[in-house]
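hey
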């Protein structure tokens, strides 16, 4: 197995640094734990075992993908900020052929939010918006903008404003 393993007690225990230094196409397996928000800028596959938590601590997005060919699978993403201007999201992506699979997002303004994400897949995710916010002030559970041929299926979305597919 050529996967790079990351855990709180492993030799590799800085998830963002591991992502930043991983070669293109790497598989990074994260074994549980609680992690800070992430930014992914090159093609890779990020796989969570035992639902590792990404806690945005009420500021910004949980995971930002700024690359083509990224897969994020099996994470528990919580507590995004509440900025509509910045579109604080559980997972925000720009890039083609990205895969957002089997993640749990709770207390998020926007759940999965993608732009120019042609040929991407959003599947098997659970999205729950912030508690105690009126419907008009909630973000979209899933939003795709200018993203052709995106597959969206088997997601469960609650406490969000709506699902938005725009210019796609």
């Amino acid at each position: 197995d050529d996967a790079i393993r990351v855990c709180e007690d492993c030799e590799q225990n800085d998830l963002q640094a591991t992502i930043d230094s991983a070669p293109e196409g790497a598989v990074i397996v994260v074994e549980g734990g609680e992690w800070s928000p992430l930014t992914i800028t090159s093609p890779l596959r990020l796989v969570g075992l035992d639902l590792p938590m990404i806690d945005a601590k009420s500021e910004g997005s949980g995971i930002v993908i700024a690359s083509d060919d990224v897969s994020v699978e099996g994470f528990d993403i919580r507590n995004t900020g509440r900025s509509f201007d910045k579109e604080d999201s559980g997972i925000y992506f720009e890039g083609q052929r990205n895969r957002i699979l089997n993640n749990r997002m709770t207390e998020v303004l926007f759940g999965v939010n993608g732009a120019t994400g042609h040929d991407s897949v959003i599947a098997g995710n659970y999205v729950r918006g912030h508690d105690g916010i009126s419907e008009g002030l909630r973000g979209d559970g899933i939003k795709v903008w200018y993203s052709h041929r995106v597959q969206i299926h088997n997601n469960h979305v609650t406490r969000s404003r709506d699902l938005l597919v725009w210019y796609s």
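The first strand starts at residue 4 and ends at 6. The helical segments are 15-21.
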